[in-house]
Design goal:
The protein is of the alpha+beta class. It is built from 16 helices and 13 strands. Helix content is about 40%, strand content about 15%. A hairpin with a 2-residue loop joins strand 10 (about 310-315) and strand 11.
Length: about 375
């Protein structure tokens, strides 16, 4: 391991923007982005598509949808009980890393819902039979299967059964049908995936996470991956040939390769990005203070309810939130800044046009509307 090198706190946002391919999108396509990122949070399908698209030069929403339809990437619950996009061939071992922990942690909830082990086993067999050789099935039909078999899908029972079936590696999500999720057997939708030992899987995930999210701490990785800190350390130690630990601000950060070189200041215009809600730039870390002033946190996550608004990023810092509305064949963007961003109007318009290009839509009106 390299000797400790002090890294300026100011460089952490810049390094993350670069490593996450926000500042420097690459032309590899959606599947390459998802593999590079390790996993991309995806409880909101439309936001997740933009999270992938903004990191892939020239990508459109159709490209992301095709990557899912072509079985290159899948949407499932590999970590923290939360939907993510992952490489199809890696879905099984990724889900397997947290399967036992997640199943154990939700046992009481299953009992509260009246879903005992025998009922869950019956539901898994029902799904396996209904989906075998038949392709993706809409969520509404999956829930009807449960009802017809005497398992009431109401009161979150249907959602929990679907989640459980994905958590044990039986199913994953397929392409959406309109606004509705579909489900398929993981063995049919993502066949031929690698089988990794737990140690190799931990090291593989740690290497991908740090390469794409670094600089990051062991606690960031543990939180993101839904692992114990002990398992997170095992993964980072197993990937040490690719990674380096460096100190900054009293913490130890992991980075890929050598430590980042401090930047003494960059000439040119500020860098402005419109990131989706739930983006990895925020959700990829337990500690978000390096890029989000805690005083503004409630404006990004109102009510601290876990719903992250889309954010405006200026030179690595969260500088506001934004929302979009479709009107007359165009997309209308409204920005709510945390401070005065009037001087950045042209740059914000440019970022908004990039989002419009991803959707294949022009920007409505004369540009972005900024509301104080």
């Amino acid at each position: 391991m390299s000797a400790p090198v002090e890294v300026w706190e100011m460089d952490i946002p810049r390094s993350r923007l670069t490593n996450q391919r926000i500042a420097a999108p690459e032309p590899g396509g959606p599947a390459d982005v998802v593999r590079w990122m390790g996993a991309t949070q995806a409880q909101d399908a439309a936001q997740a598509a933009w999270a992938v698209g903004l990191r892939s030069a020239g990508a459109t929403v159709g490209d992301v949808e095709r990557a899912i339809a072509d079985r290159e990437i899948v949407r499932t619950w590999p970590m923290r009980g939360t939907l993510h996009l992952v490489p199809a061939g890696d879905a099984r071992w990724m889900v397997g890393l947290s399967e036992a922990r997640m199943i154990a942690s939700t046992r009481r909830r299953r009992e509260q819902l009246g879903l005992d082990d025998a009922t869950m086993t019956r539901c898994l067999r029902l799904f396996a039979s209904a989906l075998s050789g038949g392709g993706p099935m809409p969520r509404s039909r999956m829930l009807r299967l449960l009802a017809d078999a005497g398992v009431d899908p109401g009161g979150q029972r249907g959602y929990h059964v679907l989640w459980y079936a994905a958590q044990v590696g039986l199913i994953c999500q397929g392409p959406r049908e309109g606004a509705e999720d579909t489900f398929a057997l993981l063995d049919e939708w993502g066949p031929g995936g690698e089988t990794l030992s737990r140690e190799v899987a931990l090291a593989t995930l740690a290497g991908r996470y740090v390469a794409s999210h670094g600089p990051a701490t062991v606690h960031d990785f543990a939180w993101w991956a839904g692992l114990t800190v002990g398992d997170a350390r095992l993964g980072l130690d197993g990937a040490q040939g690719m990674l380096t630990s460096v100190p900054s601000g009293g913490k130890s950060y992991w980075v890929a390769g050598g430590p980042p070189v401090p930047e003494l200041g960059r000439a040119g215009l500020p860098e402005v990005y419109l990131l989706p809600g739930f983006d990895e730039y925020l959700l990829g870390y337990r500690d978000r203070d390096a890029v989000l002033n805690p005083a503004h946190a409630r404006r990004v996550v109102p009510g601290a309810n876990g719903v992250f608004f889309p954010t405006v990023i200026v030179d690595g810092q969260v500088a506001g939130t934004w929302k979009r509305r479709f009107t007359g064949g165009a997309v209308e963007i409204t920005v709510s800044p945390f401070g005065n961003l009037d001087a950045l109007g042209d740059l914000i318009d440019g970022a908004a046009r990039s989002f419009g290009a991803f959707l294949g839509l022009p920007l409505a009106g004369s540009g972005v509307t900024i509301v104080e």
